[in-house]
Recover the amino acids of this structure.
């Protein structure tokens, strides 16, 4: 399939890097931080208990599902409060979390492919997560980063896609959204009038019979190759 792509919006977690190892590291880093700075909190909330508290905070605050940073702060604040800790520890604890959150290990193909893609078309990060591209060290490859926290709603809300297209100055039909999640990324983008590219690294089955991805690859390299082969004529 060949069609004009004048810009790309790109998901981050589980598209450029796997999130599961980050999540596991965050849990341990926070526990180690609490053991040093608030032992009572570490005792009351070992890793599994802190994870359960975080999951309960998520369930109890659906109005904040677009703002993972706020949910994390709520979790930490409750843990500190319940253990009688100094509330002033909240922001240092959050910083310990956030530093670990931005220590990513790219998929083997992702960084080289991203460099190739960014030389062809403007790329904007559109994510429900709270990664910081500057901290990670790849901010220069992106035109901008638009998170669900900043926008006020999470994918697959069409508004976040439309806001990204507006900032790019490109009509939605000429923007390709690229991501791993069938609903939040691909189906959401297509319903919003964008093209959708599914990065399906684990050979999942497509479960939206009413629509299909415009493109599908098992690595980001596949998309870079497709742009090299098919998009040049649209970029003159």
């Amino acid at each position: 399939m060949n069609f004009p792509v004048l810009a790309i919006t790109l998901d981050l977690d589980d598209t450029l890097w796997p999130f599961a190892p980050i999540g596991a590291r965050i849990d341990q880093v926070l526990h180690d931080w609490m053991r040093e700075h608030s032992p009572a909190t570490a005792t009351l909330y070992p890793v599994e208990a802190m994870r359960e508290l975080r999951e309960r905070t998520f369930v109890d605050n659906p109005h904040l599902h677009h703002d993972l940073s706020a949910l994390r702060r709520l979790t930490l604040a409750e843990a500190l409060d319940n253990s009688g800790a100094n509330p002033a520890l909240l922001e240092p604890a959050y910083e310990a979390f956030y530093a670990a959150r931005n220590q990513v290990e790219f998929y083997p193909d992702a960084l080289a492919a991203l460099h190739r893609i960014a030389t062809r078309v403007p790329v904007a990060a559109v994510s429900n997560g709270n990664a910081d591209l500057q901290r990670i060290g790849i901010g220069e490859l992106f035109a901008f980063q638009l998170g669900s926290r900043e926008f006020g709603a999470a994918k697959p809300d069409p508004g976040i896609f439309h806001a990204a297209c507006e900032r790019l100055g490109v009509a939605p039909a000429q923007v390709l959204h690229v991501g791993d999640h069938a609903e939040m990324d691909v189906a959401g983008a297509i319903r919003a009038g964008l093209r959708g590219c599914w990065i399906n690294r684990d050979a999942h089955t497509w479960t939206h019979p009413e629509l299909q991805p415009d493109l599908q690859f098992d690595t980001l390299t596949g998309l870079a190759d497709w742009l090299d082969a098919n998009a040049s004529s649209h970029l003159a």
